[in-house]
Design goal:
Elements (H helix, E strand, L loop, with lengths): L1 H25 L2 E3 L4 E3 L2 E3 L1 E6 L6 H13 L4 E5 L2 H4 L14 H10 L3 E7 L28 H20 L10 E6 L4 H7 L1 H15 L7 E4 L9 E6 L15 E6 L10 E2 L3 H13 L4 E8 L33 H19 L5 E4 L4 E7 L5 E7 L6 E5 L2 E5 L3 E5 L7 E2 L7 E8 L5 E7 L11 E4 L4 H5 L5 E10 L13 E6 L3 E6 L2 E7 L7 E6 L5 E10 L17 E8 L6 E2 L4 E6 L2 H4 L14 E2 L11 E7 L8 E4 L5 E6 L2 E7 L22 E2 L8 E4 L9 E7 L9 E15 L8 E3 L5 E3 L4 E5 L5 E11 L18 H9 L4 E5 L16 E9 L1
Parallel strand pairs: 4-5, 4-12, 5-6, 6-7, 7-8, 8-9, 9-10, 10-12
Antiparallel strand pairs: 1-2, 2-3, 11-37, 13-14, 14-15, 15-18, 16-17, 18-19, 20-40, 21-32, 21-33, 22-31, 23-28, 23-31, 24-27, 24-29, 25-26, 25-28, 29-30, 33-39, 34-38, 34-40, 35-36, 35-39, 40-46, 41-42, 43-45, 44-46
Helix pairs in contact: 6-7, 8-9
Catalytic activity: Hydrolysis of terminal non-reducing beta-D-galactose residues in beta-D-galactosides
InterPro entries: BetaGal_gal-bd, Galactose-bd-like_sf, GH, GHD, Gly_Hdrlase_35_cat, Glyco_hydro_35_CS, Glycoside_Hdrlase_35, Lectin_gal-bd_dom
Pfam family, one: SUEL_Lectin
Amino acid sequence: MESNSVSKVLIFLFSIALLMGAQLILCSVTYDNKAIIINGQRRILISGSIHYPRSTPDMWEDLIMKAKNAGLDVIDTYVFWNIHEPTQGNYNFEGRYDLVSFIKTVQKLGLYVHLRIGPYVCAEWNFGGFPVWLKYIPGISFRTDNEPFEAEMQKFTQKIVGMMKSEGLYESQGGPIILSQIENEYGPAAKKLGADGAAYLKWAAGMAVGLNTGVPWVMCKEDDAPDPIINACNGFYCDTFLPNKPYKPTLWTEAWSGWFTQFGGAINQRPVQDLAFAVARFIQRGGSMVNYYMYHGGTNFGRTAGGPFITTSYDYDAPIDEYGLLRQPKYGHLKELHRAIKMSEPALISSDPTIISLGSFQEAHVFSSAKGNCAAFLANYDSNSAARVMFNNMHYNLPPWSISILPNCKNVVFNTANVGTQTSRMQMLSTTTQPNSWETYGEDISSLEDSSTLTAVGLLEQLNITRDNSDYLWYMTSIDISSSESFFRGGQKPTLFVQSRGHAVHVFINGQLSGSAYGTREDMRVRFNGPVNFLPGTNRIALLSIAVGLPNNGIHFETWNLGVLGPVVVHGLDHGDKDLSWQKWTYKVGLKGESMNLVSPDGVSKVDWIPGSLVTQSQQPLRWYKAYFDAPMDNEPLALDMKSMGKGQVWINGQSIGRYWTISANGSCGICQYSGTFQASKCQLGCGQPTQSWYHVPRSWLKPTQNLLVLFEELGGDASKISLVKRTTASVCASAHENRASMVDWHIDSNGEGTMLRQPKIQLQCAPGQSISTIKFASFGTPSGPCGAFQQGTCHAESSQAVIEKMCIGQETCRVTASKSYFGSDPCPSQLKRLYVEAVCFP
């Protein structure tokens, strides 16, 4: 009896041990030289950055599902310290800042998470993600071997890791987090900081590893990342990158899908052909994880944009646009790339590539496994000329600057330069409801000094006074002007020179605007030099210094100065120049409307608003405007068209949309060629137009009726022309070639044999709830041109329009085979033909 009992106990304990061992295998993340290993399996991982505070919680699930549908495995996000700990020791994880809810949404949809804690993030985010209070801790120095900084950084990192552990969110606990990042792009700083940088780097690595998350840690752009931390690459291209140890995998933490936009700059776009080429080139060199930065860029709501001068839109030319809509063909073409990579995965994770020269600028990278899997990448690095190459006794045509993927070393299922997915042309249309009953309130500057909080001799640094509680700081002083000055008798007016560290300044003399000056992201220094209208006696000078986001990168950027730091000099007086820099100045933080919280439904009633015509007030500076509007009944994404205004901020129902500024864009706009090395300024749009005209209005911020719209205008504008617009698809285009199958047309069986399942097709897809109403263009033959400007070629099937209309009108999705059997007789038997279609979706 005892023997049986002991046996049962032993069997029970053995079973528990087996289960625990299985659990350890099933919930583990490690790595080797080939890849990240999840639960015992090497993985080729496709990832995309989606930052939770740059969208709203009601958007998260849709964004993540679209990423999943495009073949992504991982969602990558930074953790933004300054939104979570706005004042020391006080935390905020509500609403858009609910990090745990965001990660659980990713988990619910079956994807992994790369949690980039930093806590320095850069990211064109205000102060690089650091809270401003951190700057004022005695003896602190950011991102170096400094005890006060390291203590606060460790405290916040432990806070985040503790939250993740308590919710069971690490893969080692059965959660979705497979990687974490400590620090961010520290390599350039480390080199400049020398021994202090090296000591800090070692400390940060040890601190992170000591938190025992059960998943690997990453450092990007840091070649000296200490073991066991994986160093990773950021950039437009990372095909030459190698990890710092031979036993680490090759990871690309930021494949830049586009580039950010700055006020006064053009819109930067990256052709999808080049992005796909860069990713394929990285994978063919042995890369095993690619993260698109950004996959959805979103919006810099409130005053979260840093830089400075970064726009409120953080669209980034990402595959999912700022509003959550698919950017086609970028989204679709990358989706096909991901499928081709996944088809090649068994070979990719099994061996290093064998490189075979195919020509002067052409080569093949061939992967094979012991089980007989074979995958090949055929590359043409020539940016000008196509190439015809021989590989495995077969000929292949390679467009310029492209890579063809052969998951079975035989059949081309994808080429980076051949875009076969739908192109969508987007537009902004007025909605059925518009802001109405505009009223105004003038910011009172006559009594500024009466409500000031500080007086000092000399000019003070702006951030030290505002602590970033407002973009605005008033600098006020006075000057006595003798009635005998010659300019009162027809002479030349005196001029006022103001030098500031930015980012903008408005100059008021006796309550009247005399002029403004602005810096740029490249040169933040502001210089105002203009004539001023002085009166005999005492003249009041008020300088409104304006921040457009705090710096987000640079060595010890916490020490950089902001605001009017001088000199401030009056030129052209009879007795010479008058330097005002070191006389008594009075300071006031923010605007009167801010202190009264005029932007909120509760605060808006605190002043007497002036109703009536806006025409006489349209060019008056420093004015508040308010109106109400009802939410449109449809569900398209919304924005405010602010082209009629100048510069300021805007709120909906008390929530900040962000800064607006209709400054015109300067850049080098022109024809964009996908081939050749990409840089941020290569492909620009919008020169001569406002850098940003439309400002995203989240649907979740709206009530059915009586939504409060409040804006503060610094310069003057016509608020009556502000309109609520919706983002919709103007038209969709698709093309198919007789000899060019798309990814969906191929099947590779378990023996590596490729079969083209069907002839190439076009696919037109309207947004949910829409259907194809009109066919703007259709041609089977030799059409040419870009979407929106298709043209018939010398070969054209006359039945094209009628056939496409019959098959597609009234359909949400339409598929048509590019085959002569659909269009009657062959219009040109001796030529390879293609089918081009442009359609309009409605409503």
